[in-house]
Amino acid sequence: xxxxxxxxxxxxxxxxxxxxxxxxxxxxxxxxxxxxxxxxxxxxxxxxxxxxxxxxxxxxxxxxxxxxxxxxxxxxxxxxxxxxxxxxxxxxxxxxxxxxxxxxxxxxxxxxxxxxxxxxxxxxxxxxxxxxxxxxxxxxxxxxxxxxxxxxxxxxxxxxxxxxxxxxxxxxxxxxxxxxxxxxxxxx
Length: 188
What we know:
The chain contains eight helices and six strands, in the order αβαββαβαααβαβα.
């Protein structure tokens, strides 16, 4: 992905305070290549594409009543069609490996917000480079299946914050250090 974005003039921006459908329409209206990239939570969607198209989309969103637009400090237009070249390079690399069978484990795909079919994991790993991340829908689907407790692993609490915006009744934990791991294990 780093090689693919090296010569691109692309970027990403978060748009807050508008419905997803409105932002999808704004991306079309902005012209150029700009698309929804991360469906994070109600009222927050990240867009990605050509820098100028992203800027136009932000301007249109502000005129349409967005509470805020924030150009993100990222190295490229991730989860956009501009990354299709990187996706093909990833496919070539993944084809050199055999994945273990999932057995009774389940993994939710960022691309579909549904459980992976283990025969399609490589294809969906490739697609996630240029397809939007359906975080909100993934969590909503898990909630509909009865899941109520979620553990975010890694530094920060961004995903836990998104989860509170999706459903405040969820239990959300963050594990980013040995101390927070101990605290989480004591809580569950």
